[in-house]
């Protein structure tokens, strides 16, 4: 949200293609509600807030299900995180050779406003064309998709194992309110403490 204020206040008149805001002083709330990075950023903050609040001790003790279900929102969080940069808020210059840093307009350097065209070809510090910018390609998916796929495979494996039938052989009530369950399950061996 702070970035949206900065995009509005730091609007570049020299390089309009570099801006996320449409004009200087654009209302940051409008940028947040009309751009992909704005909407997804708000959703990411809300999900983190829900996870944080539900992690408190009083909620975990009184209603564990709220804690459990809000923490499963991490999957939605990672999916939104992968979409967050699709809007192209961060951009890079594609023609640094023809428009080196420091020049503002073609045939002009940052130090001189008027340039002799004969000297232009000899001086590498002068612009030969306007600056061109392109948004960075989203790369979050490279770092998030692998662990997310491993998590999904592990959850699927746990689901298939949990759906196997269990035969209860005996239920014994011991003193001190201890209940002993004897069960049979295919391909399962209990270890002490399980």
UniProtKB/TrEMBL annotation:
Pfam families: Ferric_reduct (PF01794)
Main location: membrane
The keyword Repressor appears for this protein: no
Ranges for domain Ferric oxidoreductase: 37-81
Membrane topology: Multi-pass membrane protein
Higher taxonomy: Eukaryota, Metazoa, Chordata, Craniata, Vertebrata
Entry's localization field: Membrane
Superkingdom classification of source: Eukaryota
Name assigned to this protein: Ferric oxidoreductase domain-containing protein
InterPro entries: Cyt_b245_heavy_chain, Fe3_Rdtase_TM_dom, RBOH/FRE
Keywords associated with the record: Membrane, Oxidoreductase, Transmembrane, Transmembrane helix
Transmembrane domains' residue ranges: 30-54, 66-86
Keyword Membrane among record annotations: yes
């Amino acid at each position: 949200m702070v970035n949206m204020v900065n995009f509005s206040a730091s609007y570049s008149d020299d390089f309009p293609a570099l801006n996320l805001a449409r004009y200087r002083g654009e209302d940051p709330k409008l940028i947040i509600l009309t751009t992909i990075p704005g909407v997804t950023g708000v959703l990411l903050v809300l999900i983190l807030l829900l996870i944080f609040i539900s992690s408190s001790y009083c909620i975990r003790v009184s209603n564990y299900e709220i804690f459990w279900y809000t923490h499963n929102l991490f999957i939605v969080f990672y999916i939104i995180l992968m979409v967050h940069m699709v809007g192209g808020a961060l951009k890079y210059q594609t023609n640094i050779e023809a428009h080196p840093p420091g020049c503002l307009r073609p045939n002009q350097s940052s130090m001189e406003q008027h340039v002799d065209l004969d000297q232009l070809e000899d001086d590498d510090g002068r612009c030969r064309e306007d600056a061109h910018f392109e948004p960075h390609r989203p790369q979050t998916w490279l770092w998030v998709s692998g662990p997310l796929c491993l998590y999904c495979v592990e959850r699927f494996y746990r689901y298939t194992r949990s759906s196997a039938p269990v035969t209860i052989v005996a239920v014994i009530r011991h003193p001190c309110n201890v209940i002993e369950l004897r069960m049979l399950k295919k391909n399962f061996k209990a270890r002490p403490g399980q």
